[in-house]
Amino acid sequence: MKKFDIRKIRVRKVSVDELDDRMLLINLYMTQVLTLIIGFVWVLFQRQNIIHLFQIPDRLNFIWWGLGLAGAVILVDLLVSRWVPDEASDDGGVNERMFRHRPVWHIAVISLVVAICEELLFRGAVQHAIGPYWTSIVFAVIHVRYLRHWVPTGLVFSISYGLGWIYIQSGTIWAPIIAHFAIDFIMGLIIRFRKEQDEES
């Protein structure tokens, strides 16, 4: 029987263009499941009450915190995309591949899953441990596809800091979850319908 040689394993970088739609979705959802598990376990180790963390406050002003930040982010992103060359804000085509032909309901599902999983980890656990500034550094590094260009890296850091700030101001994790969901959902719709218009013209 032939022995298994670990030295013969070759790891190579795979570009987003090499992944089919199914593998792209599997990669996304598996990453989010892992993010959720890490966040959940970390919150428990911090002895936080997970039920209290996700408790919806009586006052609904957290909705305005979330929607306000989302509106500001989308406005800035649209201005940046208008004035900054595409190559300076390129994410490697991941967002375009993810949303370009996706039905609206699936864009909403992806946005909701990402918002809940990432906010549990980054705002619920990491920010609780190291504060909003260092959490935003980690958040920007985790979104590695943006690190090749300073414009998207700066935007991701700023968005993360904004999410951390509204978490502190509102006192509930639902504010950054709403903001994160709205940003991803609206930007996904912009990609989806802009590409549709481009294909028709």
General description of the model:
The structure is a single chain. With 201 residues, the protein is mainly α. It contains seven helices and no strands. The chain has helices spanning 21-45, 50-53, 61-83, 94-99, 104-142, 150-170, 174-200. The protein starts with 20 loop residues before the first helix and ends with a helix. The mean pLDDT is 87.
Give a brief outline of the structure:
The chain is mainly α and 201 residues long.
Number of alpha- plus pi-helical segments: 7
Secondary-structure element series: HHHHHHH
Shape: globular
Low-confidence stretches: none
Average residue-wise pLDDT: 87
**End-to-end separation:** 60 Å
Number of strands: 0
Structural class: mainly alpha
Helix content estimate = over 70%
Major sheet, described briefly?
Answer: none
Question: Proportion of β residues?
Answer: under 5%
Whole-number radius of gyration?
18 Å
How does the SSE layout of this entry go?
Elements: H1 21-45, H2 50-53, H3 61-83, H4 94-99, H5 104-142, H6 150-170, H7 174-200
Helix pairs in contact: 1-5, 3-6, 3-7, 5-6, 5-7, 6-7
List keywords for this structure.
201 residues; mainly alpha
